[in-house]
Amino acid sequence: MHFALLLGFGANAICPHTALSTIRELAESDTLEERLLPGEAVDKYVTAVKKGLLKTFSRMGISTLRSFLGSQIFEAVGLGKPLVEKYFTNTASRIGGIGLSGIAAESVARHRRAFPPDGHLRNADRLLDVGGVYQVRVGGERHLWTPEAIWKLQAATRLDDYGIFKEYAALINDQSQAHATLRSLFAFRKGTPVPIDEVEPVEAILPRFVTAAMSFGSISKETHETIAVAMNRIGGRSNSGEGGEDPERTIPLPNGDSRRSRIRQVASGRFGVTTEYLVNADELQIKMAQGAKPGEGGQLPGHKVSPEIARIRHTTPYVTLISPPPHHDIYSIEDLAQLIYDLKSANPRANVSVKLVSEVGVGTIAAGVAKAKADLVLISGHDGGTGASPLTSIKHTGLPWELGLAETQQALIFNRLRDRIRVQVDGQLKTGRDLAIAALMGAEEFGCGTTVLVTLGCIMMRKCHLNTCPVGVATQDPVLRARFGGAAEYVVRFFRFMAQDLREQMAELGFRTVDEMVGRVDRIETKTAVDHWKAKGLDFSAVLLPPGNAGNSPLHRVRPQEHEVHKALDYEIMALARNALDRKEPVRIELPVRNVHRTVGAALSGEITRRYGAQGLSDDTIHLDLYGSAGQSFGAFLAPGVTMHVHGDANDYLGKGMSGGRIVVTPPEGATFLPHKNVVVGNVVLYGATGGEAYFHGIAGERFAVRNSGGRAVVEGVGDHGCEYMTGGVVVVLGGTGNNFAAGMSGGRAYVYDETELFDTRCNLDMVDVESVWQEEDVRLLRSMIENHFRYTGSQRAAQLLENWESRLPLFVKVMPIEYRKSLERMRMEEEMNTESVSATEEVYRG
Amino acid sequence: MAKPTGFMEYDREEPAHRPVSERVGDYREIEELLSGEGIHRQAARCMDCGIPYCHAYGCPVKNRIPDWNDMVYRGNWRKALDLLHSTCNLPEITGRVCPAPCEPACTLSINLPAVTIRHIELQIVERGWSEGWIRPEPAGFSTGKRVAVIGSGPSGLPAAQQLARRGHEVVVFEKSDRIGGLLRYGIPDFKLEKWVIDRRLDQMRGEGVVFETNVNAGVDVSEAYLRRSFDAVVLAAGATAARDLPVPGRELAGVHFAMEFLTQQNRRNAGDAIPEGEEISAAGKHVVVIGGGDTGSDCIGTSRRQGAASITQIELLPKPPEERLPSNPWPTWPAILRTSSSQEEGCERMWSVQTKEFLGEQGGVRKLSCVKLDWTEPDAAGRRSFKEIPGSAFELRADLVLLAMGFVHVEHGPLVRDLGVATDNRGNLVADGNCMTNVPGVFGAGDSVMGASLVVRAINLGRLAAEGVNRYLSGR
Known about the structure:
The complex is a heterodimer of chains A (847) and B (476).
Chain A: H1 2-8, H2 17-28, H3 38-59, H4 65-68, E1 75-79, H5 81-87, E2 92-98, H6 100-114, H7 147-159, H8 162-177, E3 187-188, H9 202-205, E4 209-211, H10 221-234, E5 263-266, H11 275-279, E6 283-287, E7 299-300, H12 307-313, E8 321-322, H13 333-346, E9 351-357, H14 362-371, E10 376-380, H15 391-396, H16 401-414, E11 422-426, H17 432-440, E12 445-448, H18 450-455, H19 478-481, H20 488-509, H21 514-517, E13 524-525, H22 569-576, H23 578-583, E14 587-593, H24 602-612, E15 622-630, E16 642-650, E17 659-666, E18 679-681, E19 691-696, E20 699-700, E21 709-715, E22 727-733, E23 747-753, H25 759-762, E24 768-772, H26 776-793, H27 796-803, H28 805-808, E25 812-817, H29 818-836, H30 838-846
Parallel strand pairs in A: 1-2, 4-12, 5-6, 6-9, 9-10, 10-11, 11-12, 14-15, 15-16, 16-17, 17-19, 18-20, 19-21, 21-22, 22-23
Antiparallel strand pairs in A: 3-13, 7-8, 23-25, 24-25
Helix pairs in contact in A: 2-3, 7-8, 7-20, 10-20, 13-24, 14-16, 17-20, 26-27, 29-30
Chain B: H1 6-9, H2 20-23, H3 36-44, H4 53-58, H5 65-73, H6 77-87, H7 91-97, H8 102-105, H9 117-131, E1 146-150, H10 156-165, E2 169-173, H11 182-185, H12 195-206, E3 210-212, H13 223-229, E4 232-235, E5 241-242, E6 255-257, H14 258-269, E7 286-290, H15 294-306, E8 310-314, H16 341-344, E9 348-350, E10 353-361, E11 364-375, E12 386-388, E13 394-397, E14 400-403, E15 407-409, H17 414-419, E16 442-444, H18 447-450, H19 455-473
Parallel strand pairs in B: 1-2, 1-4, 2-3, 4-16, 6-14, 7-8, 7-14, 8-9
Antiparallel strand pairs in B: 5-15, 10-11, 11-12, 11-13
């Protein structure tokens, strides 16, 4: 981070001399974990710094050091205007803060510790500071969670004792007074209190609560399902996170409880995002970033990817899963609008929400999100969860939700968009006071993550990434999972206590409903800010600016978005396909298609899946022949039983999230060009597909089959980054590829017709092996897919290959992810051992 | 972190105790050290928690437990020792006698046995002593300020050492003939052999601390002298006023305070002769210990070694549960039934028993008249009350009765009176955030401020008082 900061503000070279001499000394005194020569240790440090920098660049979407130099992609919190203007010119610093004298005072204090004014260094001062940045140490960095707060919250929810909850809240709020958060600097401006009986009841507040997106995979099945049950009991919403969801969970339990996550997340990895997943949601959340680690995708280390998790995510057991930082179908706000439309098409009954992180400019993005017709926008703060974030992200990325929420509220009101979108906030909301401040600043819904885990037994081990959570919350180890001691009642009580605590604040402030309260920033004051020497220069006036509100527009959502999904071509198709939908009778439909027809097939697929579940209809029940240029997201979330044949060409995002069925794209009849030399489909085709098959008589654009985890496709050539991040499925390329083929590919396989024998120069070999196609299984699969390609498209290229099979086969190469191969072998071994004895299997699991 | 999966691979292993049959024949320490491999495995069980409750909640001196567990696991004993000493002046004492509130606060103890933290602490410091790493650390400069520390127990010693290391001239006044206070005379040798204290005192002398024994401050040296000769005074005299049981027959011979009994045995072990007629012995006697705490246990172990005919321990409170109650969750100190090593050596234990009267013959106690109690469930404030069970009166045979019912507060003797320091309604000294009493320059430390408590809390308050004195003397 320090290096990134220096480079970002223009440094061309850095000499970290103290770090280097410390490392030398550690190596010389042999106190490093590994025995190294001083030179080696320094080399390793430099390598680590370089890797860290690359990672930082990539999170910011920057590819080269040159672009990063002087980019100033930082926001300052707590630095005064004059200081920033002079030394960090044009850097955002929204609440002001200290100047040079403040920086000097801190430096002098540090210096005094090492060099006391009287010249005598005490023995006690010879030890380094206790630190405690990541693990709590008394006398070190302040943490919001203290041991007392944790056990009191757990005791309160276990014993159903609101009195203990108030003690917990007092501990948290008291810490807030110790200036650990921006909201700790706020005070309420008194109003005329109302009797608490006149405040809306706990039950009216509960639906405003959601739980943060925590995937099944990051947390255990027990934890994930307990949260869902609890949220369904209180009428709130739990969030699947980005790991898919077992379809079984939509079936209510005998006692009436439901384990279904009402919110289902659609993140960059698209893990487990099937049509069935979408149609069973009440809310579909597009995660643009995570508050605690903006710019990064999730990562699930291989040892947490149990066979069950792999099944639900449509990936391979024990293979590490990486969510790419960006959504490959979102490069602009229009793309986001497109995805919102796609999701809304697949499930018109669900609200679509967009999760953003608190950062400067989030207001503009939120306004865009509102215009893109999202129903809800979530502003996620930096001090929110994710116990397993990289250390640099925990410490140095993200911003307080207070800043992002304020900007969002102001921008939405200014653009007269606030009336049509709900605003939700999360990031360590722990008490009624936190909720009250969030509401006053403009939030009408509240998300809790860590606190919910704590009520279920989490004790902030920060070991989520190691799979060793000793309380069974964030682990997949069956032995540790058995120690899970949580129960849905605890979570229910927690939210009831939170609502009650909020009600008490409301009564005090004189609000009868949360709606009345939302956006009333005028009821917050900041005079306590001056009590601390470092807080003296802070100025919250911009953050707490009451909205200009010329049009007297509402401060919270009062009307729904106008989505207009029902005007789509799909509704015409569904009318024509009634016999198929109602009676499963085969139908054949011919229609012209134009590029203004977006997301053709998604609504139809949603309808099929709602009626018939994931298995859909039998193959080719609905056969569509569409003539012309198909618009974006053609065949998105396609369900089994539908064949869509475009005679013409198709745009970007074709087959996005495809779950079954068949897509065929051929050039228009009578075209005079050579298909295998011309582009027939756009970029990012089959993104996140989990099933189905596709045949393209022509070349596809870039990022073909990115994050594919189950779809099978044949194409006659692809652009750059083909098969990126793929985790499953099969891709056959009957022609050239662009560069960086198979980057981040951890599963599935690809076969490439490598006529020029240059493929290995274009393939990213970090994670895959390139080998010849000789095993019978491979040969059979490849040949059958090419035969299918010929059958559906009439491709001459396919015909020629099949005619000269023996001579052409040696020119094919197979791209095989290394980890995937290992995993397949492991599973095969497990299967063999399963037949022998159970204990042997255990050994493999642990291996 | 030591080893991520250590806690899943290794079980807790307790350090061995010498067999009962052997140990009751002597007064030597009963606990043995785990082997090198054993201690390595125990350290490996530490999980390096995000919030280490052992350190941040359980331990009064905030020992950096996860850090030194890791160092022990990696064999960095020297670093571990320095770190341990940075928070605790007497780890060889706490490593032996601390009830280790860190351990029930250990995250593992939510659903598994805790890390053996106390024993790891002991091994770190004993390694330090045997390697010769523990040497005087004199300040190397002098502030020219003089501090008197009254009392040389677990609070006075750390206060004195911390102050000496800050360059102050420190004189410790002890009214007894040897330094150590409660550590010296209150704790039996089978838990803490006294050379352990001497070793540390040598280090402190090397750091310039002056020890004055047989000086009862306020009597042998006046309050005026102390004020005149010292820039600050630390009252660390403990809470030695024992709680009495004023029932009929209390004056009978054979009814003693536990401390009288324990002190005498410690003197005997140290080679002192006990004057004829003052001897308190359990040999061949039926002993009743009143009070179920640690002091009571010490009386049991000592009586057993002296050859008591029978030992019965009675406690007013009801028998605690075997497991934590829901209202007493992790990581709070568990109010559960424990069996001390002394109780394990053999005694009868009774709960919910109140003593109504001591019955005697020829001026000596022979029996206790007792009654059984019925306790109510705790009320909203956690208080419970009792009533006698009608018809439950019974008698207990007793030739020797030892009162181990706790201590009420610091002795309100001439010193406290002459200094004019204020006491609260429980009789403890009142001290501010700097540990200073209402009298400028006079500080309170340890049990004299908080009432009788753990050694480790006394150490903590001793250290805090030293910090307060230091701030006061350096004018900050």
